[in-house]
Write a structure and sequence with these properties.
- InterPro entries: CheC-like_sf (IPR028976), Flag_FliM (IPR001689), FliN-like_C (IPR001543), SpoA-like_sf (IPR036429).
- GO terms for molecular function: cytoskeletal motor activity.
- Belongs to the FliM family.
- A hairpin with a 2-residue loop joins strand 8 and strand 9.
- The chain is of the alpha+beta class and 330 residues long.
- It folds into 2 domains: 193 residues, CheC-like (Chemotaxis protein chec, 3-Layer(aba) Sandwich); 71 residues, Surface presentation of antigens (SPOA) (Roll), CATH 2.30.330.10.
- The chain has a 6-stranded antiparallel sheet. Strands 7-8-9-10 form a 4-stranded antiparallel sheet, with no helix packed on it.
């Protein structure tokens, strides 16, 4: 992006040109010279801006799903939002992670490789405290996780993978499976140190505790689906239209579906005392007359008026009138 000069700098430049301290031709020569841009091969930018924007949208949805999930599980105020999305070498990411933290490693089938969700100890222990009946106090003692604490945290974060799967469903149908829960990043080597990874940082607040949840996605794992992360791909993706055979099969299935039709002979209201005293041979008087039309219902909705009769010694109802939609609503 071109540098923007202040008014005082513009005035000084014009003054230097008018007094001859600077030559306009020399300035033009400098502009025509090739610009040299420094490129760090250790920090190779392998994700395009378009792909970064798509990853941001996906994980904004993931953050909303996590907010709902943790709010229900912990029964306290939870707020999660995307703070930043950066691409950097894996080695640089690992060095930025605290010495002792919560590292959830999972495999995103059918993709080949592993993803990582790093949870700040303040957040992880606030969650654990809430699950065990506390107020959500963050106690940073991650260096000595007990077996019970490890089990509880594994189960809690295992279910977050369902939200991760739902957030990615617009791009690919994933079946993520928890692989391991680590506390020391030095023992974790998912990819080579120079491999480019995308790190999505989620700003998280749980009650009075706050911290970051970092999601690490290696480029080598996402490489096969990178074309699907472009807006151009999303714009070209159309809903698959049904074939004529599929439409006919669906229509036949609907036509052959069973439908409950019933005719009401009439209604009557009696007390519970009268109901309890009913016996064989007793008669209940209905509200309708013998000549009144019978109400025919399809499902539970009134659709027709009819008249009772017989067809070949079987009881039958003859439809005499169709109930209009307005009349039905009334």
């Amino acid at each position: 992006m071109a540098e923007v000069l202040s008014q005082s700098e513009i005035d000084a430049l014009l003054s230097a040109l008018s007094t001859g301290e600077m030559d306009a031709n020399e300035l033009k020569k400098e502009e025509n010279q090739k610009k040299v841009k420094v490129y760090d091969f250790k920090r190779a930018l392998r994700f395009s801006k378009d792909q970064i924007r798509s990853l941001t949208r996906i994980h904004e949805n993931f953050a909303r799903l996590l907010t709902t999930y943790f709010s229900a599980q912990l029964r306290t105020f939870v707020q999660i939002s995307v703070a930043s999305v950066d691409q950097l070498p894996y080695d640089e990411f690992i060095r930025s992670v605290p010495k002792m933290t919560i590292l959830n490693v999972f495999e995103p089938y059918p993709l080949d490789g592993r993803f990582l969700i790093e949870v700040n100890p303040n957040i992880a222990y606030a969650m654990l405290d809430r699950l065990l009946g506390g107020r959500g106090v963050a106690i940073n003692k991650v260096d000595n996780l007990t077996e019970i604490e490890t089990r509880i945290m594994t189960q809690l974060f295992q279910r977050t993978l369902e939200s991760f799967q739902e957030a990615w469903s617009t791009v690919i149908e994933l079946d993520p499976q928890m692989d391991d829960l680590e506390v020391n990043p030095q023992f974790l080597q998912m990819v080579s140190p120079n491999e480019t990874v995308v790190v999505i940082s989620l700003s998280t607040a749980i009650g009075e505790a706050s911290g970051m949840i970092n999601i690490c996605l290696p480029h080598v794992v996402l490489e096969d689906i990178l074309p699907k992360l472009s807006v151009h791909y999303w714009m070209q993706t159309k809903k698959k239209s049904r074939s004529t055979d599929e439409i006919l099969a669906l229509e036949n299935n609907v036509r052959n579906a069973p439908l409950l039709i019933k005719a009401e002979l009439g209604k009557s209201e009696i007390s519970i005392q009268e109901f309890l005293q009913l016996g064989i041979g007793d008669t209940i008087e209905l509200s309708s007359l013998i000549d009144d039309p019978l109400l025919i219902k399809v499902g539970d909705k009134p659709k027709f008026w009819g008249q009772a009769g017989k067809v070949k010694s079987k009881l039958a109802i003859q439809v005499t009138e169709v109930i209009e939609e307005d009349e039905n609503n009334e």
